[in-house]
Structure formats: C-alpha cells, structure tokens
C-alpha cells in the first residue's frame, strides 16, 4: 500500500490500463456487503433464464450471426466476448460508483453469455481438432486460452452459492435475531472462500487471486467485529467495523477491475491469435506499469512495484524477467513462458539484506529488463527514477486502491522489536519497585497479582508500561500532528532511541508493548491527537482510555487518574461520535496483511 504507480507503457490498444496502473477509480461511498464482494445482491443463482432487458450483454441472436467457418467463428466470438466484457465492466463500475446493485441483472446475463460461449468454444474446438494443423493454425491455442477464462468466470460466479443461500434464508426470516444472522453470514463467507480457493485459474489470475481472497478474510473480520459489538455492546469494535466497511468495497473493486481488464485483454488476444498467420514468427507482446515512489515501511504490505502483462499471438517463447530497486531491493528474476494465454506478474522484489540508510528520502532507480532466452534479445529495458521515502514517512493515500487508508498506521507497530521487549522488562522492574512482592510479571489477561481483580490487573500493567517508558527517558514532543495525507512517524523502537515522540508515536509505542503482552489495544485517531484504548479483559467489550503523552510519569500525585480513564459504553459513544475519528484495531494487522519493514 502507499505506492504511486505511473501510467503504463502500453504497446498497443491500451488493453490493460486499469490492471497495469493499479490505480482504478475507486467508489466514493461504501456498498452493501454482497455488492462489495461482486455478488449480485438479491439475485437468484444462474438458471439460464436471465432476461437481457437490462443487460450489457448481446441479444440471443448474436450467436446466430456468427460465421459458420470454424476459425472465423472463433474470431467473431472472441471479439464479441471482448466487447461485452468491457461493456459489463463499465456497467459494474457505474453500479459500484453509485453504491447500488443495479448491475445484478447485467451480471446474470453476462455469466449466461460466458456459459453459452464456453459450450460454443468446446464445440468449435472439436471441429478444429479434426482439421489439418496448417488449416487450424493458432486457433486451438486461442480456444484453450479463452476456455480457461470462461470456465474461471462461471466458476467465480457460482462460488457465491453459499452466500446466495444465506440471502434466501434471511429473506424467509430463518434467523432468530441479528446475532444468528451474522453468525450465518460468517459461515456463508467461509463457504465462498473455500470455493474461491478451489477454482482453476487462468495464468493471468494466479498472482491477483490470493489478494482477492484475502479481502474475503477482511470481510469476515468485519462480520466478526459486528457480532462482538452486538453481543458485548462493544463500542470500539462497532467503530472498527464501520471503518472496515469504508475500506473494503474500494479494495475489492480494485481487484475486480483488474480481473475484468485482464479478461477483456485475453478475449481480444484470443481473437488476434486465432486469426493470425501461423507461418508468421511468434511475436512477444509486453505491457507494463512501474512505480514512481515507494514508502519503505509500507513496502511489505504493497502488492507490487511493477505490473507486467506478457503474451504472444501464437506459439511459445521463453523470457527472463528481472526487476530491482537500486540499493533497496534484491534482484527479482523469473523465467516466464509466453503463450497466447496472458501471464500477469505483480512484481515486488524482496527487500535487500542491507537496504542502506532509510532515515531520509532520496531518489533511486527502478530497473526492469525482459530478455528472450532463445535469442538473447531484449524485449524490454527500462530504468525509471523512483522516490524512495524515509522509513518513517507515513501516508494515508493509497494509489493502489484509491482510498484513504488509516489502517496503514498498523505498519508502525513493533510488538516484537528488542526495544519494545526492553520496555516490558522495565515495566516489570517498575512494578517491583512500586508495588512490592508478587508483582514480578506482566500476566496480560490472566490474574497474576495478589488481591487484584481483572480490571485492576489490566490497569496496573498499563500504568507500569507508562512508568517504564518514562524511566527510559522518553518524553512527549509537542510537535504538530495531523492525520493527513503525509506525516513523518517514528516507529516505537526509534522513539525509544530518540527518547521523544509526538502523540501518534507514543500511542504506537504503548500499543506495541501492550500487544507484546498479549493484550488488546486499539489506536484512536482524533482531530489533531492520538490515544490508545485498551480492552479491560479478553472479550469484555469494555475499554480504558490511555493518554500516552503524559510524560514524564511516576504514577504519583493523581497521575494515574490522568493517564487512565474508565469509560462506560455510552461515554465511549459520545467521545467517538464526531467527524475525523478513526478506531484502528491493532489485532487486525495480520488479517489485513499490514506489516512494516524489520530493520
């Protein structure tokens, strides 16, 4: 996340603009859950009887107008599929932008078209297989590539059957209450995910699909947060769920836009391949987009710095793809066999073992070469300037997904760093000095102190952590903080070394230590300020508000009351219910695939 990609260098037809740029126009509003996943809300499973009245797909006589001769018939069919994929993609995008489900009938008709086309390709392929190889030309390869795309998309649609069944049951009032409904929805999503995992993928979806499936996991986290907030009256989980809902539709649509762009490109190339002269030399075709800037601490969470589509209009060619960010990454090297089926690579070279000094911004080069392994010829060679930001540079703008991404802040958590572990050790020492015998541990959500209940155990640990941070010499830096598009934010280990931090930095430090002790913190982003909320006990649904800027801190003279605020659910609602507030659940970092650079 946080990468800004330049416009792609398309060699012809601009087939893959959305896919290569990874900057598809994102919806400005959230959608309902099923719409966000690409499932037609309220639509019945495909039964072959969908009406074409509101469809972006052709009328039923389109197939009757196809030529009879096999190769010509395939060329015309693939041209039709390319056009209708583009038309449906545009209709779907408009529906997403409008946050409605007007695309549902069009999707049913499009899937019906794909299912019918799959049978048609199989029939024509039988005729081609009986022909002389010279007569059939490249049409067999084209048919196979298109068939894989068609089978994938029909399977993609049918993968949503568990969610369709859930919708049907919900419409019949099968669930006794909202908790039962959320539980059933979670189970349905698990079924959809399992179906997605089982799909046979076209080559161009192999790199994209795991990212798409990961978003189903994020949706399940949103459902889980809804469930917990309902059952426990957990106000913080309710706010976290709200922010998950705000991000997920845009990210899902991003991957869907890539999918439809690649499907269209594949159908168009199948048409070109089927109609190409089989005697002509195999011509490799490349289209790619490259990053123009990199945020190092967001690099592990990013999908790519180069997106490359590679294919031929007939025949096979072996090529070597090499990508490197000078002084920052290792060299990426991959052999690719180019065929009429598009290969789509989302390339992110591994970080170098020594990426150099990342504490300040500087310019470097993003280099890519593609070499024909048979001839040694360079098929592509690019070296583009890229801005390599400081490891402490933070941004909310995600050009990959076209959204404001407050969860980026989770990349700054460091629960496993040595400096954070040192704070934990110092917190135990602080407890021993201030509380005496029996307080020689941070037990997390376990009773481990003499005569203390759950809430007091949690408060004591939070107080000891703040005291330890103070004893290590860390002080509050009253520098300005704005949760805007760009901010320099020190990681917790750097805060300990610098012995100074602004509010977001002290909040991340405290939250990291709490998380390392197996407790459940959340980062609160308020207008001009940042704080930490800490669940009083595992699954309690109740939270303490921690003012982490209270430094120096000794725990004396009423400081504990200034540092820790015990608030009711209603008080939390009043505190958080205003513009410009974000609640970031620190437990979501792994589920959302967000992690920082370990230096």
Low-confidence stretches: 1-59
Major beta sheet, specifics? Answer: 8 strands, mixed
Number of domains: 3
Rounded mean pLDDT is 87
Helix content: 40-55%
Give the number of helices: 16
Tally of strands: 19
- Evaluate the radius of gyration: 28 Å
Apparent shape: globular
Output the structural class. alpha+beta
| Terminus-to-terminus distance | 19 Å
Oligomer state equals single chain
Strand content: 15-25%
Written account of the structure:
With 599 residues, the chain is of the alpha+beta class. The chain folds into three domains: 31-40 and 64-275, no CATH class; 284-399, Sandwich (Immunoglobulin-like); 406-588, no CATH class. The chain contains 16 helices and 19 strands. It has helices spanning 17-21, 33-36, 70-97, 104-129, 133-136, 139-158, 161-171, 178-198, 209-232, 235-275, 418-435, 454-471, 492-498, 503-516, 559-563, 569-576, and strands spanning 4-5, 284-294, 306-312, 317-325, 332-338, 343-347, 362-372, 378-388, 393-395, 397-398, 403-404, 475-476, 486-488, 500-501, 521-526, 529-535, 543-546, 564-566, 582-585. Strands 1, 2, 3, 4, 5, 6, 7 and 8 form an eight-stranded mixed sheet that branches. A five-stranded antiparallel sheet has the order 18-17-16-15-19. A two-stranded antiparallel ribbon has the order 9-13. The longest helix is centred in the middle third of the chain and has 41 residues, at 235-275. It is globular and about 95 Å long. The two termini are 19 Å apart. Residues 1-59 have low confidence and may be disordered.
Write the layout of secondary structure elements.
Elements lengths: L3 E2 L11 H5 L11 H4 L33 H28 L6 H26 L3 H4 L2 H20 L2 H11 L6 H21 L10 H24 L2 H41 L8 E11 L11 E7 L4 E9 L6 E7 L4 E5 L14 E11 L5 E11 L4 E3 L1 E2 L4 E2 L13 H18 L18 H18 L3 E2 L9 E3 L3 H7 L1 E2 L1 H14 L4 E6 L2 E7 L7 E4 L12 H5 E3 L2 H8 L5 E4 L14
Parallel strand pairs: 2-8, 12-14
Antiparallel strand pairs: 1-2, 2-3, 3-6, 4-5, 4-7, 7-8, 9-13, 10-11, 15-16, 15-19, 16-17, 17-18
């Amino acid at each position: 996340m946080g990468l800004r990609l330049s416009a792609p260098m398309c060699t012809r037809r601009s087939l893959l603009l959305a896919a290569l740029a990874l900057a598809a126009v994102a919806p400005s509003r959230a959608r309902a859950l099923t719409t966000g996943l690409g499932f037609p809300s309220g639509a019945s499973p495909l039964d072959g009887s969908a009406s074409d009245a509101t469809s972006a797909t052709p009328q039923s006589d389109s197939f009757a107008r196809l030529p009879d001769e096999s190769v010509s018939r395939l060329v015309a069919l693939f041209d039709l599929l390319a056009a209708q994929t583009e038309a449906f993609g545009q209709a779907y995008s408009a529906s997403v932008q409008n946050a409605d489900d007007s695309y549902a009938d069009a999707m049913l008709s499009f899937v019906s078209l794909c299912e019918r086309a799959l049978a048609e390709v199989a029939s024509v392929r039988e005729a081609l297989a009986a022909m002389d190889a010279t007569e059939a030309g490249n049409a067999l390869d084209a048919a196979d590539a298109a068939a894989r795309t068609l089978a994938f998309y029909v399977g993609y649609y049918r993968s949503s059957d568990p969610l369709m069944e859930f919708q049907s049951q919900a419409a019949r009032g099968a669930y006794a209450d909202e908790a039962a409904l959320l539980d059933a929805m979670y189970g349905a999503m698990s079924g959809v995910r399992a179906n997605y995992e089982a799909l046979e993928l076209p080559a161009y979806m192999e790199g994209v699909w795991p990212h798409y499936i990961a978003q189903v996991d994020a949706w399940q986290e949103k459902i889980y947060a809804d469930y917990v907030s309902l059952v426990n009256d957990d106000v913080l989980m309710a706010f976290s769920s709200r922010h998950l809902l705000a991000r997920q539709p845009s990210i899902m649509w991003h991957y869907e836009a890539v999918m439809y762009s690649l499907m269209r490109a594949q159908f168009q190339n199948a048409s070109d391949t089927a109609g190409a002269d089989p005697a002509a030399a195999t011509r490799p075709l490349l289209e790619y987009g490259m990053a123009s800037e990199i945020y190092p601490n967001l690099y592990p969470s990013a999908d790519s710095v180069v997106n490359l589509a590679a294919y031929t209009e007939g025949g096979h060619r072996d090529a070597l793809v090499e990508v490197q960010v000078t002084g920052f990454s290792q060299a990426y090297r991959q052999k690719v066999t180019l065929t009429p089926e598009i290969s789509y690579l989302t390339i992110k070279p591994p970080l170098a073992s020594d990426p150099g000094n990342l504490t300040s911004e500087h310019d470097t080069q993003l280099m890519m070469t593609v070499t024909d392994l048979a001839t040694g010829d360079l098929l592509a060679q690019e070296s583009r300037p890229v801005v390599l930001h400081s490891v402490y540079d933070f941004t909310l703008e995600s050009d990959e997904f076209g959204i404001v991404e407050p969860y980026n802040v989770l990349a700054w958590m460091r629960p496993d760093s040595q400096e954070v572990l040192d704070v934990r050790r110092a917190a135990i020492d602080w407890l021993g000095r201030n509380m005496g015998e029996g307080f020689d541990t941070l037990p997390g959500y376990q009773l481990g102190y003499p005569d203390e209940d759950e809430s007091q155990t949690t408060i004591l640990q939070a107080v000891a952590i703040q005291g330890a941070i103070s004893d290590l010499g860390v002080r509050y830096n009253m520098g300005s903080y704005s949760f805007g598009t760009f901010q320099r934010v020190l990681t917790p280990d750097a805060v300990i070394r610098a012995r100074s931090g602004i509010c977001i930095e002290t909040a991340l430090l405290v939250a990291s230590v709490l998380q390392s002790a197996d407790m459940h913190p959340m980062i609160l982003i308020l207008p001009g300020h940042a704080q930490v909320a800490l669940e009083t006990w595992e699954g309690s649904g109740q939270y303490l508000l921690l003012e982490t800027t209270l430094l120096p801190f000794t725990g004396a003279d009423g400081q504990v009351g200034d540092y820790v605020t015990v608030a009711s659910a209603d008080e939390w609602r009043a505190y958080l219910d205003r513009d410009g507030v974000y609640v970031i659940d620190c437990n979501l970092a792994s589920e959302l695939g967000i992690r920082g650079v370990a230096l």
